[in-house]
């Protein structure tokens, strides 16, 4: 089965890290990706390893929760918005396919912030943004 790949911008969107931070992790050898046609490309394995890296994971965790606090703190929103946190406990063999499915769903979604955190058998997904789009994503996973 061919594995999906993710650009730096997609990894940035999924982790909350800036593209500059991700590039720094790559140049420092903390994260791994391939360069194809002059652009960094992350395989699913590269991406999952990044989520579990003990140096990177705390930064991702801090970035994950900040938007939730910002969402709760905001008094005025431009329209109906939804913040959804999903905790899934899955067998190790099911975690990679689930993360892959959600990442693929999010590739073309606009107006929704997305975070994914994996620890042991638990996967936490955070979606924030346009109410109808977040509902649609929820129904698809």
Main attributes?
single chain, 141 residues, 3-stranded antiparallel beta sheet, 6 helices, 6 strands, 48% helix, globular
Describe the global form: globular
Approximate strand percentage: 25-35%
With strands numbered from the N-terminus, the spatial order across the biggest sheet is 1-3-2
Q: Could you describe the largest sheet, including whether it forms a barrel?
A: 3 strands, antiparallel
What is the tally of helical segments? 6
**Overall radius of gyration:** 15 Å
Q: How many structurally independent domains?
A: 1
Query: End-to-end span in angstroms?
Result: 21 Å
Give an account of the 3D structure.
- This protein has one domain.
- The radius of gyration is 15 Å and the shape is globular.
- The model has no long low-confidence stretch (mean pLDDT 88).
- The protein has six helices and six strands, in the order βααββααβαββα.
- Helices cover 48% and strands 26% of the residues.
- The strands form two sheets. A three-stranded antiparallel β-sheet has the order 1-3-2. It has a three-stranded antiparallel β-sheet with strand order 4-6-5, with helices on both faces.
- It has 141 residues and is α+β, with helices and mostly antiparallel strands.
- It has helices at residues 8-15, 19-27, 44-52, 57-73, 92-106, 131-140, and strands at 5-7, 34-36, 39-43, 81-89, 112-119, 122-130.
- Strand 5 and strand 6 form a beta hairpin.
């Amino acid at each position: 089965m061919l594995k999906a790949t993710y650009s730096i911008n997609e990894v940035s969107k999924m982790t909350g890290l800036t593209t500059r931070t991700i590039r720094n992790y790559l140049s420092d050898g903390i994260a791994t990706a391939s360069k194809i046609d002059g652009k960094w490309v992350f395989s699913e394995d590269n991406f999952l390893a990044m989520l579990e890296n003990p140096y990177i994971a705390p930064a991702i965790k801090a970035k994950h929760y900040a938007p939730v606090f910002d969402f709760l703190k905001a008094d005025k929103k431009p329209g109906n918005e939804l913040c959804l946190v999903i905790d899934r406990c899955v067998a190790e063999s099911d975690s990679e396919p689930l993360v892959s499915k959600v990442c693929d769903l999010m590739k073309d979604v606009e107006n929704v912030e997305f975070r994914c955190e994996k620890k042991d058998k638990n996967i936490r997904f955070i979606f924030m943004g346009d109410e109808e789009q977040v509902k649609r994503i929820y129904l698809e996973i």
